[in-house]
Amino acid sequence: MTQKKSKLLILYSTVDGHTKNICEYAIEKLKKKKEVTISSIEESDLYKIEDFNEIVIGASVRYGYHRKNVYEFINNNKKILETKKTAFFSLNLTARKAEKNTPETNPYIVKFLKKVNWEPTIKGVFAGRLDYPSLDCANKLAILFIMVITNGPKDISQVYELTDWGKVDELINSIAEF
């Protein structure tokens, strides 16, 4: 008799698409072990989250904050989330620094989880991708200013892949063991 696969819902909130890329990468690693569904948080109402055993939420930070829809989703579904195995990961450029690259030391994930008063089963934080060429002028200048202040990458003709994929794999392996 074959064991029934656990039903996993992966939700993402992304500004530039990299959070979605990480979620799609996770699907490739998890699809043999779990029945995986992926959706943007904007379209999460198409699914009944109570029908899933496990829920993963990935969210990016822009200008110091996770997007409003992530706060709303968690606040609206906290009672259900607290009955499930859950994972939350944050993508932010601050996580490129060794002293801010864990869920316990990254100010954005600490502040976010405290504000929503939610404790996911597993937490992760990764540096994202900085794609200067795809940014409009205002965002390019704003992010360049932040990078000057924080000693980050400054060549606006480049794309910087700052994600530690080994850490992403560690999170995925933890989710696989739910």
Protein architecture, described:
By secondary structure, the chain is an alpha/beta fold. It folds into two domains: 6-128 and 163-176, Flavodoxin domain (Rossmann fold, 3-Layer(aba) Sandwich), CATH 3.40.50.360; 130-162, no CATH class. The protein has helices at 18-30, 68-81, 107-116, 137-149, 165-176, and strands spanning 6-13, 34-40, 54-62, 65-66, 85-91, 122-126, 129-131, 159-161. Strands 1, 2, 3, 4, 5 and 6 form a six-stranded mixed sheet that branches. α1 (18-30) crosses α5. It is globular and about 50 Å long. The two termini are 21 Å apart.
What is the CATH topology descriptor of the largest domain? Rossmann fold
Rg, Å, rounded: 16 Å
Give the helix level as a range of percent. 25-40%
Question: Roughly how many Å apart are the termini?
Answer: 21 Å
Total separate domains: 2
Residue ranges: pLDDT <50 for 5 or more in a row?
Answer: none
Mean pLDDT: 95
Number of strands: 8
**What composes the largest sheet?**
6 strands, mixed
CATH A-level architecture of the largest domain: 3-Layer(aba) Sandwich
Tell me the strand percentage band: 15-25%
Q: SSE order, as H and E?
A: EHEEEHEHEEHEH
The number of helices is 5
Q: What general outline do the C-alpha atoms trace?
A: globular
Summary keywords:
178 residues; alpha/beta; 2 domains; 25% strand; two-stranded antiparallel ribbon; six-stranded mixed sheet
